[in-house]
User: Which sequence fits this backbone?
């Protein structure tokens, strides 16, 4: 259980922050950039949810919770020491990735196949989900960059990769099942 009695601690005033294992790193480190961007994505998703209803809102709520799991995973670098940790570290698991794949397949089954690229837009929810998609791609790039230098849970990277696909398909669903998709017309304004 997390207890936050005091919001400011002054411990980061010199430009460093604590990771989940207690190590201190610069606030501009690759690890902080990766989990910070997953937090940004969660906030962006919160705005998207202002336009969501029903099953789609329920799924977005699940993803918001997963993004906190992802942030907890990315902020703890010592995966090889997980077994010795005082409490079991929270890690994204392959089952979370599989759930996204199942949901993508289910949503996509009701959509007409694309014959063009889609411009971000259509309904308000679809436009916000496209923003979520691009922030998820950035979070993925940062996680991959981090993984090139330090240990990163492979399931966390896979989750971000699937999540951007999930947002793309969900944006089509939010565009009245793809009927309000805004299609790219190559060279239309030459």
Assistant:
């Amino acid at each position: 259980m997390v207890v936050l009695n005091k919001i400011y601690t002054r411990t980061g005033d010199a430009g460093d922050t604590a990771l989940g294992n207690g190590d201190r790193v610069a606030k501009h480190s690759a690890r902080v950039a990766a989990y910070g961007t997953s937090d940004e994505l969660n906030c962006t998703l919160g705005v998207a949810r202002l336009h969501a209803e029903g099953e789609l809102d329920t799924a977005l709520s699940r993803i918001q919770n997963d993004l906190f799991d992802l942030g907890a995973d990315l902020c703890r670098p010592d995966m090889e020491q997980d077994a010795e940790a005082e409490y079991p570290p929270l890690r994204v698991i392959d089952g979370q990735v599989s759930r996204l794949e199942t949901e993508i397949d289910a949503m996509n089954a009701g959509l007409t196949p694309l014959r063009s690229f889609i411009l971000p837009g259509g309904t308000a929810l679809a436009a916000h989900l496209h923003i979520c998609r691009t922030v998820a791609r950035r979070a993925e790039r940062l996680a991959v960059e981090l993984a090139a230098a330090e240990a990163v849970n492979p399931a966390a990277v896979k989750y971000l990769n699937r999540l951007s696909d999930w947002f793309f398909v969900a944006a089509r669903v939010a565009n009245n099942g793809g009927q309000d998709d805004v299609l790219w017309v190559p060279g239309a304004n030459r």
